Amino acid sequence: MFSKETSQESQVQENEVCEACGTIVELGSVITEDDTQLVLPFSGPTKESVEALAEKYIKAAKERFETVEIMVDYKEVGSTIESEVTLQFECTAEKLIFEMGLSAI
Known about the structure:
It holds the Pfam family DUF406. This protein is α+β, with helices and mostly antiparallel strands. The chain is built from 4 helices and 3 strands.
C-alpha cells in the first residue's frame, strides 16, 4: 500500500515530466534514421492548378536542400487531377526540418 507522501511524490514527478517537454514519448522512438521520404498529396480541378501548388513545395525543398530528389506522379480521378510529390532527403534531419517549415510555404 502506498503512503500519502509516496503518492504525492509520484504525482509531482509525473507533472514535472509533462510540463518539461509536453509529451512522454521519447524522440528516438518517433524518428528513425531511415525515415527520409516525404510524400505530399495534391488535388485540384486542372493539372495546371495542381502543378502550381506542387511547384511551391518543390521549389522550397530545392532551395533548402540541394540534394533532395523529387518524383512527381499525376493521375486523373473522375473530374479531379491528383498528384503525389515524393521528396527523398539525404537524412532524417533534413526531412524533419522541411516538415517543420511546411506551414510557412
